[in-house]
Amino acid sequence: MAFRYLSAGESHGPALTVVVEGVPAGLPLDEDLLAADLARRQLKAGAGGRMDIETDRAAILAGVMAGRTTGAPIALSIPNRDHAAWKGRAVPAYTVARPGHADLAACVKYGFDDIRPALERSSARETACRVAVGAIARAFLGRFGISAASYVAALGAVPEAAVPLREALAFAGRSPNRAPSQAQEDAYANAIHLARAKGETLGGLIVCVVDGLPVGLGSYVTPGRRLDARLGAAVLSVNAIKGVAFADAFANAALEGSACHDPIVLGGDGRIGRPSDRAGGLEGGITTGQPLVVRAAMKPIPTTLAPQRSVDLATHEAAQTAYERSDTCPVPRACVVLESVLLIELAAALTEKLGGDTLDEMLARYALLPTADDVRLSPAPKVFWP
Ligand SMILES: Cc1cc2nc3c(=O)[nH]c(=O)nc-3n(C[C@H](O)[C@H](O)[C@H](O)COP(=O)(O)O)c2cc1C
Fold first, then answer.
1. In terms of pTM, does the model score above 0.90?
2. Is 21 within the bounds of a domain?
3. Domain boundaries, position 344
4. What CATH number is attached to the domain comprising 181?
5. Which of 192, 138, 167 is nearest to 350 (CA)?
6. How many angstroms does the Cα of residue 203 sit away from the middle of ligand 1?
7. How far is CA 29 from the centre of its chain?
């Protein structure tokens, strides 16, 4: 299977480890390339103290020789710099479950009387693995002219503003909170400042856009082929992401059909075009060749400085949650995580479409695929059922 990965590692253990399978041979890859995306996951704005000590770097342990992938599984190791502070220390018991985290259900499920083993793995520290694998997918898809970008469309109680998509993406690239405009950036910074002062956390809405996709990735029906299902599952696999939509799916639900769908128009040269992209790049489970637009809702993270009502699992007495260093609002940092999981799934779908063991043979096959501009009418009607 292409771009399949398995991660292991605890938040404060020695390192995170991830193995990626199904990357073709011949893709230039080095640790600096992975570091660029890992740095985006560590944006400082909205982050907590941990971001000051984490400067992630993934070591490539297997699957790359002389700067190129070999086609063999790629093994990456991302050391937890925080580990040094924990090594050899008796770790204090953590017994008050945080509402909104895996804590309570995990302790019941695995029979723990201390939450530590659950929170060490359920922590979003693991998303560093997704981002490292996503960087490989980004490098791979980049060879085919496919790229991803994202912005924070709404944060906490700051609502979405009407900013044209391309402007929003361009501004987010230079905005500390990945906002779509200066007005939104100021409002987000203020909201985070106020939340931090109250010991609160904030969620938000992220928009991811993937450009340059060919027509025809995915297929109509089964969950394993239908791209809506695969991409939706990938997005929902990210910690704290609770909702996903393709383009304005929830607003589109209120429209009449002819106002909702993207017209199919004929160009003078026999080509078929789409003047709009309200579908967000997917129809019938298949890419249309237009930009893929995915919206995701992230809940406010569970670890708040402000105490929350809970129960101490050791004493079975009512208790208030204790604070362990945590973010106020990781929504801007989650942007690169969402781009990564989408890119990984799209890299898998493209590999299924093209087949092949080497990047060069895939590029040669890709050159034969029709692009969105090449969609033409079939010359004559056919009889399908005798
Ligand atoms: C990039 C990122 C950073 C996060 N940082 C924190 C954090 O510092 N503290 C916290 O309590 N939760 C944090 N979370 C969220 C938790 O991992 C998540 O809420 C938890 O796994 C339970 O959410 P779930 O119900 O979606 O699994 C973060 C999530 C992401 C995507």
1. yes
2. no
3. 92-374
4. 3.60.150.10
5. 138
6. 10
7. 21
